[in-house]
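Hi, here's the filled form for the chain we discussed.

Project: internal
Contact: R.S.
Residues: 339
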Amino acid sequence: MSESEVTMNLELETYPPMFRQQNNQSCSHQKVDEPVGESELTIPVIDLHCLSHDELGGACRDWGLFRLVNHGVPSSLLRQLHEHAKELFSLSFECKKEIFCSPLSYLWGTTAISPSGAALLTGPQNIHWVEGFHFPLGQLSQLQPQHPTLASFRLLAEEYGKHMGRLGRTIFKTMVMELNLDPGESETHLDECTGFLRVYRYPLRSMANSAWGIEVHTDSSLLTILNQYEVAGLEVLKDNQWLQVEPISDTLIVNLGDMMQAISNDKYKSVKHRVRLNKDRERISIGYFVFPKEDSVIRSSKYKPFTHGDFRAQVQQDIKTLGFKVGLEKFKLTQASSP
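And the returned structure, exactly as it came back:
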């Protein structure tokens, strides 16, 4: 056995058993549509140092996504988070299951969890080729992990979470002004206590029986801030064409979720996106998700009044019964019932 094969086998042992069991099926024969390179269709760039209402509004209306520069998050912190995440994933499957206890979650084959933190699996036909950790930021300070790698990551996640809260507040405040929304009413539409980090690892494409880590979806969040570091994989839908979002050093990707689309009365987009498995390297990404308060009512001429709690319950019901998220369509007013 060659050195590369030995290394591959050792890495394979760190993945969940369901991934190892299906490793003998290769997807290399699959023909999938190739995305357009970002050089051919450039994602909007927003500079936090000179945040323009018009530029931000244009990016949110036309794309639902933008690249954030001069965001103030130290490059050393981004690097350390990635290195520590890699160490966490390199632990054995059994160790990860043991050390990730409530309120943290360890999930694989799915990105959906229940309010208690349990993974929501929908059967082998709907497996996502992704392994992840869920870190609710508001509860991290109460944790005292015994495992040294997890303890180190917790400290970094707390620091990173403060930066994410700052960015989320600044971006959302500018969106509220650009949309001419009532600032008082909008106060409950971003609740930092709901913020969490999702740290994902995607295996090599040769290991999976699919080309996709996560299939086409929208985020349920108000907004999501992504650090995809060095390895490409994220693709977004723009004008019926898939675009690969390149990882560029010291930049973050911000995409809008379903809550922001509803709050904006469909002026802003909750962007459709997916994750393609990389042929040469496993991919680690760190995403920050933030939501409205649980009981904050979202009112719009396009949707029935609903809260984030209502939306989350409906999504979880759909995943259990249908195997996938339906999303905002469940709350859309029909022409006959609209005012």
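Let me know if anything looks off before we file it.
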